[in-house]
């Protein structure tokens, strides 16, 4: 294994950084004295636990070998759950009306989270030789998801018509955060496929944003209109 790959796969980084960041986030949620609606606390705490499990199963301390039959299925499941975090926030009109208006939309948001995996699966079926290289599989997913995110970002004002300006801008900032780490992942994979192994070091940046930064960003930047909802 190349030295840059060894750094990328080191246990201190994955799951270490993820666990430390999300343990701190859980403590912040539990100890917070500010008014926050139940959906925000539940969303943050639930996905913090989920991403910590993801880092365990897909990181250096995984109980599953990468050759284990379940490893790929578990990895795909966590990819879907990780992206689901953002799709829940797409439904701000329901969320901003309070917990009762938000929770009924979660199944719809999960359906949206399945769109990119399904598209990727179809591409693999159509071009099996191309995707025999797992790095091409990663890159395809990253590019499709980045395009989808950019599309939702471009239509954000239409999607959130009637919502306060602060909520629209918040959704745009969160979407840019997501677009940022998918763009960096794709850039790193292009470098690796081109023979530049330092792309593994670049990959650490979006990994950190995804595993350690995203939930913190949402928790800290959530506008007051959502925080004061007790419904």
- CATH class reads Mainly Alpha
Secondary structure: helix percent: over 70%
Order of helices and strands: HHHHHHHHHHHHH
The CATH topology assignment is Rhopdopsin 7-helix transmembrane proteins
| pLDDT averaged over residues | 89
Strand residue content: under 5%
What is the C-alpha radius of gyration, as a whole number of Å? 18 Å
Instruction: Determine the number of helices (DSSP H or I, runs of at least 4 residues).
Output: 13
Q: pLDDT under 50 segments (min length 5)?
A: none
**Based on the structure given, which CATH architecture is correct?**
Up-down Bundle
Oligomer: single chain
What form results from the Cα inertia axes?
Answer: globular
Number of strands: 0
Main β-sheet: number of strands, strand sense, barrel status? Answer: none
Keyphrases for this structure?
Rhopdopsin 7-helix transmembrane proteins; mainly alpha; 231 residues
């Amino acid at each position: 294994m190349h030295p840059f790959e060894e750094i990328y796969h080191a246990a201190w980084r994955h799951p270490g950084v993820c666990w430390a960041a999300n343990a701190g986030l859980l403590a912040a949620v539990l100890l917070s004295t500010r008014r926050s609606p139940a959906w925000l606390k539940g969303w943050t705490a639930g996905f913090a636990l989920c991403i910590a499990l993801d880092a365990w199963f897909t990181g250096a301390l995984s109980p599953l070998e990468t050759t284990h039959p379940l490893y790929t299925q578990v990895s795909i499941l966590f990819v879907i759950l990780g992206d689901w975090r953002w799709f829940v926030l797409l439904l701000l009109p329901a969320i901003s009306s309070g917990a009762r208006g938000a929770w009924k939309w979660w199944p719809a948001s999960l359906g949206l989270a399945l769109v990119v995996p399904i598209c990727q699966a179809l591409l693999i079926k159509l071009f099996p030789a191309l995707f025999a290289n797992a790095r091409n599989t990663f890159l395809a997913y990253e590019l499709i998801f980045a395009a989808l995110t950019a599309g939702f970002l471009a239509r954000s004002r239409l999607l959130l018509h009637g919502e306060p300006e602060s909520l629209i801008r918040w959704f745009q900032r969160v979407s840019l955060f997501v677009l940022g780490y998918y763009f960096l992942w794709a850039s790193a994979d292009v470098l690796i496929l081109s023979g530049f192994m330092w792309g593994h070091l670049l990959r650490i940046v979006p990994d950190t944003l995804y595993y350690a930064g995203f939930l913190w960003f949402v928790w800290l930047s959530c506008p007051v209109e959502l925080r004061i909802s007790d419904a």
